[in-house]
């Protein structure tokens, strides 16, 4: 027991502390006791069961991956290697309109719910059942969850290529309310996908109505990220205004060569809207996207790499242009023959990626796809890539600002109480890393590789990862939506 007033479970000594708020680093010691930050300062008179010498390396709040598709992964692979090795201590699942719960399938999961797994992966007819399964799995990281609009449509509708009826919307709302009452963070949509594209804005607006009373938010993979992106952004703002809730635009990007360079006007639109309502966005630090293969996007103007194909698994790693040539067919025809399939699209400009990533409203989210056999390297590399490639090597933004985009900004936006800052009394989710060495090792050719320079990771005060190896301790759990703290409604993001 801790009878001594100055005794800690763990003492981290001599760190450059990046507290998550964006403040410049200061040299500090940090004490962890009973899963919380017990003290910050010069703690040379403290005792601890374990002392870690930081030797001037960076200590930051554990990173929050606000954009994941780890819904089933946190249960089936609770060690969560792709995330814990990056210093991620909390993942938010249920993005892009697809969530593992509440789901009752009638057959195979519709596209893109198949990104979360096959039919047998969907075992949670209620959100409460999902929460129970997460906690039973004891994942290495904390798990917050959004509820997917497409998942709700799939539960309530016989077909997804039409608008929901009033009765179907009532059914969806009842399921969303069950989830909110059990701590879900909000509603996500994936309006670009065929399974939700037929939903009019009014359907989403009606579904979003219960969010405000719960203090929840709306996130959206917008109806388009191509030429009509400004209209799609307006649609997202409209849902937020109607329901009086904060909006997060998911993986903000200017997709397709005809759209390159438009991040200037896209961010101008975002800034204009932010004067009127709470809005933020997330992005991943790469100029290629990834999802299921959408034949509409096979236009021949960009390269598209196949990552998996049910009928043609031998084509994984090849570009559609080559596959089409090999088969002697058009790229469109090749795309159709490969379905269902996964793809990496070479569809962004580097200038746009940098402009969006460095904008103060942007959070970092990996959008990693853990069930893909050849996943986009963002799954294992997104956070270290920002810290190494973009902060240290390219000088795009200060390290303390990058850390803020991965921690306090994310925790405030998503309502994760007492996380995202190194602050006395907060949960001890922490990462110790070497700013001179941190580097993403995952590449498009070899994507499943742990980053370099992440030295130690604590989740809820428990050391989960150290010197390139997991400790075997898995101290993560489901995290319910917390009470919004003061100043979060506006301005703070
Ligand atoms: Zn998405």
Automatic annotation (TrEMBL):
Cross-referenced Gene3D superfamilies, in alphabetical order? D-aminoacylase. Domain 3 (3.30.1490.130), Metal-dependent hydrolases (3.20.20.140), Urease, subunit C, domain 1 (2.30.40.10)
Coiled-coil residue spans: none
Q: Which domain of life does the protein's organism represent?
A: Bacteria
The family database entries (InterPro entries) matched by this protein are listed as: Amidohydro_3 (IPR013108), D-aminoacylase_insert_dom_sf (IPR023100), Metal-dep_hydrolase_composite (IPR011059), Metal_Hydrolase (IPR032466), Metallo-dep_Hydrolases_sf (IPR050378)
Q: Could you tell me one molecular function GO term of this UniProt entry? A: hydrolase activity, acting on carbon-nitrogen (but not peptide) bonds, in linear amides
Ranges for domain Amidohydrolase:
50-465
Q: What PANTHER family has UniProt attached to this entry?
A: COLLAPSIN RESPONSE MEDIATOR PROTEIN, HYDRANTOINASE/DIHYDROPYRIMIDINASE FAMILY MEMBER
Q: What's this protein's name? A: N-acyl-D-glutamate deacylase/N-acyl-D-amino-acid deacylase
